[in-house]
Structures are given as C-alpha cells and as structure tokens.
Amino acid sequence: MRISHLLAVGLALLAFDAGAEPRTCETHASTTGSFAAGRQFFTWDVVPDVAPAEALRRIHAEGLKAGLTVGRLDPELGSVTLEQTAPLADRQVTLPVNVLVEGEGEGARITVSKTLPAGYATREDVQRRAMCAFIDAARG
How far is it, in rounded angstroms, from Cα 48 to Cα 138? Predict the structure, then answer.
C-alpha cells in the first residue's frame, strides 16, 4: 500500500513538472562543441529592477556559497569568473563559469558561460540549471 502511494505521488509530480514552462534562461541556453573536443554552455536573461552592481554581488555570493573559488572579479566591468575543480581521468581540471552583468533598462542583463574540457561527461540539462541558478541568485 505504501509503495503504491509513493509511486502515485511520484508520477503526479513528474506529470506536473513535465507540463511546467521552462524558465527564460533555459530557453536562451545553447551549447557548442562536442564531448570529444570540449563544450561550452551559454545562457542569458534579464533581471528587472536589480541594479547591475547588486546583481553581481548576489551572484558572487552564490558562487562562494556553492563552494566555487573566485578566479577573477571585476566590478568595473561587471564580471566574475568562478571556478570549480573536478576530476577528469587521472588529473584535476578547472571548470570556469564566466558571468557578465550589464545594465539593461532598470535592471541587469546577465550572461553566463561555462567551458568544459574534452572528455568531461555531463548532461546539458544539469548545466542549464546550474547556470540559471546564478541568474536566479541575482533575482534575490
């Protein structure tokens, strides 16, 4: 009885999620490259009513909270490079996430890109969600 209840709840949640509209940053997402050559993931979105400097501050804080290190922070340019170290075969590689925050109207346009080396296995939907999390952090 308990297993069938959990199964019904799980299927209901799956059906609900399948009908959900994707976030704007997910519809703006694109990928270039290949598993064999390395890939680069991109997305962007506009966050209304948040000043670019505040958006950058929130994104920087979210990156640190997530355990990333700061490779470069340039408030004047509105950019931050956050880095994650991950294993690849017999070595460690650095996976950079580049964020550019520009003014747009009364808000901020945020562009996020992530570069992965050749042979690094990941799913595109995972990368899209991770990049959108930075944009969501700017929303507050």
Answer: 10
Give the DSSP H or E segment for 84.
strand 79-88
Q: DSSP character for 49?
A: T
Q: What is the pLDDT of residues 76-129, one digit of tens each?
A: 999 999 999 999 888 999 999 999 999 999 999 999 999 999 999 999 999 999
**44-65, pLDDT tens digit by residue?**
999 999 999 999 999 999 999 9
CB contact at 8 A, 102 and 108:
yes
Among 136, 131, 115, 127, which residue's Cα sits nearest to residue 37? 115
- Rounded to an integer, what distance in angstroms lies between the CA atom of residue 64 and that of residue 66? 5
Strand, helix or coil for residue 32? strand
State the Rg of the chain over Cα: 17
User: CB pairs under 8 A, 24+ apart, for 18-25?
Assistant: 23/132, 25/112, 25/128, 25/131, 25/132, 25/135, 25/136
- Contact indicator for 131, 29 with CB cutoff of 8 Å: yes
Q: Which two tokens stand for residue 44?
A: 């962007």
